[in-house]
Specification:
heterotrimer; A alpha+beta; B mainly alpha; C mainly alpha; A: alpha+beta; OB fold (Dihydrolipoamide Acetyltransferase, E2P); 2 domains; B: mainly alpha; MetI-like fold; globular; transmembrane (chain B); MetI-like (chain B); membrane (chain B); transport (chain B)
Chain lengths: 358, 296, 265
Amino acid sequence: MTDNKLINLVNITKSYGDNVVLDELNLYIRENEFLTLLGPSGCGKTTTLRIIGGFETPDKGQVIFEGKDITNLPPNERQLNTVFQKYALFNHMTIAENIAFGLKIKKKSKAYIDDKIKYALKLVNLDGFENRMPNSLSGGQQQRIAIARAIVNEPKVLLLDEPLGALDLKLRQDMQYELIRLKNELGITFIYVTHDQEEALTMSDTIVVMNQGYIQQIGSPEDIYNEPKNAFVADFIGESNILPAIMVDDKLVNIFGTNFPCVDTGFGKNKPVDVVIRPEDIDLVKPEEGIIKGVVTSLLFKGVHYEMEVHACGHDWLVHSTDLSPVGSEVGIWVDPFDIQIMNKPESEDEEAVEIEL
Amino acid sequence: MKIRNILNTRTPKIPLQKSVRPVIGNRHTKWLSFPYILWMAGFIIIPLIVIIYYGLTNQDKSLTFDNIALVLDPINLRALRLALELSLISTIICLILAYPLAMILNKSKMKSNSFIVMIIILPMWMNFLLRTIAWQNILERTGIINTVLKFFNLPSLNIINTPSAIVLGMVYNFLPFMVLPIYNVLIKIDKDIINAARDLGANGIQTFLKIILPLSLPGVISGITMVFVPSLTTFVISTILGGSKIVLIGNVIEQQFRIGNWHTGSGLSLVLMIFILFSMAIISKYDKDREGSGLW
Amino acid sequence: MVKNFLGRFFEKFYVGLILLFLYAPIIILIILSFNSSKSRAKWGGFTLRWYKELFKNESIMNALYTTLIIAFLSALIATIIGTAAAIAINSMKKTPRTIMVAITNIPMLNADIVTGISLMLLFIALRFTLGFTSVLLAHITFNIPYVILSVMPKLKQLNPHTFEAALDLGASPVYAFFKVILPDIFPGVLTGFFLAFTMSLDDFVITHFTKGPEIHTLSTKIYTEVRKGIKPEIYALSTLMFITLLILLIIVNRKNAEKKQIVKI
């Protein structure tokens, strides 16, 4: 992934009637990046994708591709291809004809097209499916054909609009790995839209968390997960304990009356802040060894870990651990200073687009 | 984050399982169709057999092909040929007029699809005969068009009682039946399919020819069927707009029955039915998926 | 941008032209119903005379009553038989269902002249006098397929699990039908009824062949006057019928729109 800015979205604004979906969005996408737009329904991620693809025009702002302004260029003249949510395969054509569609328009030779079809089908593990009809394929197979149809045109960028939404869990997980493999083999930029944060964490180089038309945070999966910038991101990505606290001083935060050492600085003295602690970062120890003490109030076996709720300092803490502590037992809560993430409390409605009940 | 071995990403072949669709009713439900089946047998199938009987027999109940051979009489042949010509022309005109209309209506941002349908169907609720007679009014030598033309000192339009008037009558009466099926199919085309075609590089014309047109074919076929057959067999339109001069096969058959020649009338009807079956067969060749689409 | 604007103008123009084509005769008929001169092309002044004379004209009123009764009865009976058939067909396995659907399509593809003649010959062969009953039977026959084709899509859209849920809660199949299925498909049944009613109202050819000498429906009455010149009372009647149907339509549409509003909230 180079630092070369392949696509630049400048001050994109888009409304549907009274509904402002995007408000002066700025974003750049680098070459060979796997970038995911992540957010809940209605946050503007699909609209952003469609604006890049050319199926919507922004009310204000520009789309710059390789230095050129393509804002008003129709989709058939852009060097990108899209994989649609419901596949949008041409049901009246065979698989081969579907895949060949874009190539025929570019007037490629028959030999070239045949080669490409073979290559594409092999790439998505559907050799021999040339003469089948889309309706006879399963959802996962149709999805792969939709991908094949897009990539044979050798686009510089592939846009994917929640492509795995209609597949069941196992298939979805398999397809996630397929997509990563494909991206690495093809060496092109992927722009991916999803509301599933696990998907985003698995596949992306960069995640753009969006909410109500605003970008909440941009970063690598680790950054987003470990250091969410605000309560929305913290709550949307993974499970977390989001707690109101007071930043006493650098590297010291007071949560529910007890001081916890942490590693963040620069938040001021005695300032109210939000604190994020991931459930898996909480260790349950003997009551005397914990920073605070509490009682286990619920225990669920989740396979990968045990999920427990611990009532301590008047708050229910969510804890994930591979060791179980039975319900009713007294435990101590211990958190490594490194695992305490401090976030600014939102100053205005614009900063924090969504109120979270803590 | 481990990336799986490429070879292991081959998903096992799961046979395509259609989810089991629960049935509304039980094993006795099919008997609800009994009255219907009886009715169809009695009032559709048996009558057809009766026509065949009358068509192939004489007054003295002997088997004969004379009734069918009657179609080869020059007058009858001319009537049949004219009917075929005019109905074909009308069908083509309807298609040419209807398709763009259906496309425009599809594009329109009208909130209610049924409103559009209503506007097209509404004229059908004025009596069929009266609508045709109204055209007679409009086209007559002393009719409305000519009155207006005379006012501007323009030459008069003399198409009443000519085949052109009949074509106009056919197109007028059957145009909605061509528009609606095409419209209904067009609105069902997923917008993303059009987007996909554009995404892959197709311009407007290519998208139309390669995607929209083939996908709209079931509607087109439905429309053609619903225009061609009634046009072919009409006698009302030719009576009202053609005067006694223009005789179509429908008129011939109607005359025969009016004067009580049931055998000859049936014979000619059989010929007509064969023509209809023949055209249906040709048309259904283009409806490969056997989907078809209704009026609604 | 200019191209876009021009394109849109042509589209509106085209639609307008077609609508003009479709509605011109209707408008003319309505205007003629108010024409005090019997001439079909000259305007003699506005009058309501024909509307008054209409109700005094016995033969036209008789034809109207006959038409309405036949339309109503045939639509009703066709709806009952057709809805039952649609439910049955919907519950069949794929093959018998395909056959039944194909058979249902036959009368619609058949030219109405063939249907009319075949029914007439049937009645004659059975020595059944042609009259009101023969017309009624004929109308029911061509109406049933329209009902079936209106109800079947509604059945397909139905969530089949609701029927099973009803059974699960203790309902007998018959009770489940009437309380759960029928209300859900009712729009389709209603559409089928109206469609059948309209088809019957407007039918000419089949009625022409199966009616015998005694009775008249509106269509056949009009046909007898084609040569002589149409009585203006008939224009008045058609205008009234048209406006009635139009008002009914607007009312139904309003009700539907209201329902949709309620659902949104």
